[in-house]
UniProtKB/TrEMBL annotation:
Catalytic activity: beta-D-fructose 1,6-bisphosphate + H2O = beta-D-fructose 6-phosphate + phosphate
Protein name: Fructose-1,6-bisphosphatase class 1
Pathway involvement of the protein, from the record: Carbohydrate biosynthesis
GO molecular function, one term: fructose 1,6-bisphosphate 1-phosphatase activity
Binding site for substrate: 121-124, 214, 241, 271
Native source species: Aquiflexum gelatinilyticum
Entry EC no(s): 3.1.3.11
Cofactor: Mg(2+)
InterPro entries noted in UniProt: FBPase_C_dom, FBPase_class-1, FBPase_N, FBPtase
Binding site for Mg(2+) 2: 118, 121, 277
Fructose-1-6-bisphosphatase class I N-terminal domain boundaries: 12-200
């Protein structure tokens, strides 16, 4: 493969996708088109997000999503925008979204791909102007193209992803994604309407000194997790918890760190969703040299059993995720 192609910083996303596709002579271009469709929706959601405060679309929409959270109008708008872009793009046959209880069948007989998406995670942060994000996973359907969508098309383990990414609507808007050949980050230039390669070949620092967890729930944590947090404090790590998964994940990916949303007595499977939150970020973390577990095993190996199932998530720098696993499994070694 001509990986010698210089992906110079400043390359546009479109050109980057095209150059990467040329590395795969048998690529049909459908995945490339799908990535472009996602980027288009991200540009539109970015514009809506930036105007939310002015256009009074930040307020609660009155309905609730599977998280039972007040569905913010922007959540609904983002869901519509991404679903519409994927429908028009023609490459996708089904969408799993946090905002829809059931699978959305796009009635697209030629669609090869299934997308799992959290259109706008952390939406409770919208009306306090904290960064929010879109998280997406892309799978190839496993049943014949054109046949009715089957559960096995949807309930695929994260290790079957063909691509995954996130959009971070922050001080600048970034699109970060992987197709299984490393992780690359693109920064949006609104005046040009283009994403430009700003973070080529992103690599997670192997270790870090930042830990992200909601310590308000400390008393609910299992002993091993409490011990790990005490260890972080004893070594004067920095506690950084934004309350917005994509923002915390992205910062830890760049600087080194771990994000934990653990199992607790109250929530034995934690809060985060496997299909459209944990799997995508875990694929990215591993592709960047990091790690992601549910405290005991690899996130990407979990076989889903229900659409909106939750999973505990420990994700980020490899050494930190390994270490919290050791603390969690002390005394639980299988005899
Ligand atoms: P808690 C936002 O609702 C979210 O899904 C993630 O973005 C965030 O990291 C987490 O939940 C915050 O949850 O229980 O700490 O408020």
């Amino acid at each position: 493969s001509d990986s010698s192609l210089a992906y110079s910083v400043g390359t546009t996303l479109d050109r980057f996708i095209k150059m990467k596709q040329e590395e795969f002579p048998f690529a049909s271009g459908e995945l490339s088109q799908l990535l472009r469709d996602i980027a288009l929706a991200a540009k539109i959601v970015n514009r809506e997000t930036n105007r939310a405060g002015l256009a009074n679309i930040g307020g609660a929409f009155g309905q609730t999503n599977v998280q039972g959270e007040e569905q913010q109008k922007l959540d609904v708008i983002a869901n519509i925008r991404f679903t519409r872009a994927l429908t028009k793009g023609g490459e996708v046959c089904a969408v799993v979204s946090e905002e829809d209880d059931e699978v959305i069948d796009l009635q697209n007989g030629s669609g090869k791909y299934v997308v799992a998406i959290d259109p706008l995670d952390g939406s409770s942060n919208i009306d306090v102007n904290i960064s929010i994000g879109t998280i997406f996973s892309i799978y190839r359907r496993v049943t014949p193209i054109g046949s009715p969508i089957q559960p096995e098309d949807i309930m695929q383990p994260g290790n079957q992803q063909v691509a995954a990414g996130y959009v971070l609507y922050g001080s600048s808007t970034m699109l970060v994604y992987t197709t299984g050949h490393g992780v690359n980050g693109f920064t949006y230039e609104p005046s040009l309407g283009e994403f430009f390669l700003s973070h080529p070949n992103m690599c997670a620092p192997e270790d870090g000194k930042i830990y992200s967890v909601n310590e308000g729930s400390y008393n609910l944590f299992e002993p091993g997790l409490k011990a790990y947090i005490e260890k972080c404090k004893s070594q004067e790590y920095s506690a950084r918890y934004i309350g917005s998964l994509v923002a915390d994940f992205h910062r830890n990916l760049l600087k080194g760190g771990i994000y934990m949303y653990p199992a607790t007595a109250k929530s034995p499977k934690g809060k985060l969703r496997l299909l459209y939150e944990a799997n995508a970020l875990s694929f990215i973390a591993e592709q960047a040299g990091g790690m992601a577990t549910d405290g005991h095993g690899r996130i990407l190996d979990i076989q889903p059993t229900s659409l909106h199932q939750r999973t505990p998530l420990h994700i980020g720098s490899k050494k930190m995720v390994e270490e919290v696993g050791e603390f969690l499994n002390v005394g639980k070694e299988s005899t």
